[in-house]
């Protein structure tokens, strides 16, 4: 047997991805989305690698997955079983760049039937109980004249906030509303309000549809939203909740008299944990069901090897409400019943990214630190079984290194935890460079999930240190709120304390420390190198540098900035300026690689531009790499060649400053396709 090869930037092309597990109503079959990377000609006429996906199924009892959709172009996604189990609805871009709704008749077989052809496409599909109709979300259609005029009047008229969103771009004037398609009939619009609707779900009797929207236009730029129900016969909506925060994923009780949903009352602002709430179908005060449960009801464990959508809506069965939550760096399955919450997956189980339930079985996708997402099933008795690992053969050919867990205490005795991935082929008595990698959020977490980039850095001879400083998820509500209005404060001390601990390890070279991170992690990189010179090199990605301008240019700037930074910038400028790394840019001497995306609306490119310009004026070592056609998710779901190139730039930068390799000239990068360049021997 040949020696296993090491992870490289190009091994990204070999990864396979699974997402959106959906178990059939009889509990016998799991449908899921299988995604891969292949080369094809894109809409701009250039042939390059891109993502493809198809719907697959696998028996709950085990066996070989079977491909159900065979489009030659585009991506198939979001499989949804009809309640009678005889049909499978799904979304596809096979006929263009926009997702449309298709139907696969499992009894007849053959080609899928296209149900919609709307200019703005389709999202969030849910079946009616009789398997004869579906509700979905769409911004609607355009007639021929509309399309003609749109090409001539291409200026943007902006009158709403937010007016853009990362991954979407500038928002259209049309709002996302409820639509319905009855089988054999054309789709028709149900609601026509000037608020975006989301999360539709039919009531068990098929007379009403639960959904989420804001109650007033002035709340659009906040996270505040409520649960509504739409009466199909009358065409009228009524509000069930009156929240002070967000609401997600309304779910009907089996008898249709109650709903549960996930949300919070904004008690600690953006740092509030997502909780389980209940409300009567007839309205009234919502009830907090998960009181005393200290963990947010979501998957917040970070990874760069997850692609697609992952269902997190609570599921109400006869024995209780099933949900997932992130606790202590792992996302687990729980059940609420009669006022009690039970943990249903063990502490050492794969971390769950999305799930569904039927007939006592739970199907989910989950990952570990050495295995990307795979498809699992939890049996009625509680046993877990692996159904399908799309990367099993690949992992057998690659040297995948395990992380080592460690705990430490902060300056104020707060308990913290982290992991270290040691360099490949370490030799006793030798010292190696170490890179501190900081997660985004800040209300996110590292934990039991796979990172292609971390494996690649370790394979290239770097140690990778990643920890969960205060402010992250999975350690209770109080812990999560500690970073709020204190960016660059005790969170900075937590990270520096982690470096102090690492320097006690005999293999770490104190002269060859690096630091990297994206989003909030990019902010922390900028803050760290403007407040200490202990790092030999740094890499900031999709960063924040100026909290003042972030408030007005980010898609989440108003609500995030006011809550996390402590008010509106014009009311107290000092709060924003004093915690902006750009304020201290003249203190930066650490060589810095800046990576940003042109279409990042979460942390706009102007944040990177300000930082780069200042450092160039100050004649400090800096390189600025920008990626076209990409948003905030570049490192996780950007174009494959862009993701590979991004890693190459990081390898090159840290290879130069931490390994003493030659720094590759910009012209050399321009003359080679991403993936052609190899690290120097």
Distance between the termini: 24 Å
Helix content: 10-25%
* The CATH fourth-level homologous superfamily of the domain at 402-545 and 580-670: Alpha/Beta hydrolase fold, catalytic domain
Largest sheet: 8 strands, mixed
Biggest sheet strand line-up: 31-32-34-33-35-36-37-38
CATH topology of the domain at 402-545 and 580-670: Rossmann fold
- At the first level of CATH, the class of the domain at 402-545 and 580-670 is Alpha Beta
**Do you know the CATH architecture of the domain at 402-545 and 580-670?**
3-Layer(aba) Sandwich
Class per helix and strand makeup:
alpha+beta
**How many helices does DSSP assign?**
13
Average pLDDT metric: 95
Give the assembly state of these chains. single chain
Poorly predicted segments: 677-681
Number of strands: 38
How much of the sequence is in beta strands? 25-35%
Q: What is the rounded Rg?
A: 25 Å
What does this protein look like?
The chain is of the alpha+beta class and 681 residues long. Among the domains are: 115-289, 6 Propeller (Neuraminidase), CATH 2.120.10.30; 402-545 and 580-670, Alpha/Beta hydrolase fold, catalytic domain (Rossmann fold, 3-Layer(aba) Sandwich), CATH 3.40.50. 17% of the residues lie in helices and 33% in strands. It is built from 13 helices and 38 strands. It has an eight-stranded mixed sheet with strand order 31-32-34-33-35-36-37-38, with helices on both faces. Strand 23 and strand 24 (320-327) form a beta hairpin. Helix 7 (547-553) packs antiparallel against helix 8 (557-565).
